[in-house]
Write a structure and sequence with these properties.
Strand content: 25-35%
Radius of gyration: 14 Å
Largest sheet: 5 strands, antiparallel
Number of strands: 5
Strand order of the largest sheet: 4-3-1-2-5
Number of helices: 3
Distance between the termini: 16 Å
Length: 101
Amino acid sequence: MIVSLSKHGGLAAGIRLRQPPLVVDAKALPPEAARDLGKMIDAAVKAGEPPSPAEPHPDSMSYTITVERGGTTVTLKARNSAMSSPFRELRDWIERHGRRN
């Protein structure tokens, strides 16, 4: 399983241009960490995408998490202004453990 996190927009958008996503390869993780990652992904998928906020937030960051596992790809998206707790937990975990290729 390969998980990647891309960041878009926000006040520092220019700094992130052409910056590769953070990537986590579950095969490189200890078994317990890989299981925890899988559980966080399942929770974020189950929570679904939150509705768009009623008011625009032009400087809000948005995030895309792409999960490749079992021959399928799942894409999760959220914004700082509208994000589920499971998505936030997964995003934070990837930020701590991911590497740029």
